[in-house]
Design goal:
With about 170 residues, the chain is an alpha+beta fold. Strands 1, 2, 3, 4, 5, 6, 7, 8 and 9 form a nine-stranded antiparallel β-sheet that branches. The N and C termini lie far apart (about 85 Å). α2 (about 65-75) crosses α3 (about 130-145). It is rod-shaped and about 105 Å long. It has helices at about 5-55, 65-75, 130-145; strands at about 60, 80-85, 90, 100-105, 110-120, 125, 150, 155-160, 170.
């Protein structure tokens, strides 16, 4: 009996038995690394979009006193989410009343409404939809008061101090 055909058949089988687990681990590691890269890219894109939305400002074409009336009426039926703070600023609550702090700034066109600082929870700013809603409510309230509103210049933010072991407070980039 000739051993060469059996040897030629046995070598690939032996290679699969020995190399299979090595090849499987290498493929699994490559897929895991590709998934991590895609996840980080997605998270970065989502954060950039959130920062752009939080950086959107609103100009109320009225003096600050009149603008405060407009903002107060916009917040009137949402006291759980929106807080008028004792220091004259406004808070947007995700958990705490100062999760996002909104200021009114006097500008040549009137009064600009902008976020000064916000806190992230779970590694991401959670008050983006509330800020979008507040801007829409302010625009609606301004219309009811006969005051014009336009979008203002964008504001940029940088990561600030650490609030706890997982979250930071973002501040306006000067």
């Amino acid at each position: 009996m000739d051993a060469v055909p059996y040897l030629l058949l046995g070598l690939p089988i032996l290679a699969l038995i020995i190399g299979g687990p090595l090849l499987k681990n290498r493929l699994r590691r490559g897929a895991s690394e590709a998934g991590d890269r895609a996840g980080k890219r997605f998270a970065t894109e989502q954060l950039d979009a959130a920062l752009d939305e939080l950086g959107t400002t609103l100009v109320i074409h009225a003096a600050e006193d009149r603008a405060r009336e407009v903002v107060a009426s916009a917040m009137a039926k949402k006291q759980r989410e929106y807080v008028i703070r004792s220091d004259g600023a406004y808070g947007i609550r995700f958990v705490e009343a100062d999760d996002t702090v909104v200021h009114l700034v006097s500008v040549a066109e009137g009064t600009r409404v902008q976020i000064e600082t916000f806190r992230e929870y779970f590694g991401f700013p959670q008050t983006v939809p509330l800020w979008t809603d507040l801007r829409a409510r302010i625009a609606s309230a301004a219309g009811a008061h006969g005051v014009a509103v336009t979008e203002g210049p964008a504001v940029r933010y940088i990561r600030g101090e650490r609030v706890d072991d997982r979250n930071v407070r973002w501040v306006r980039d000067a």
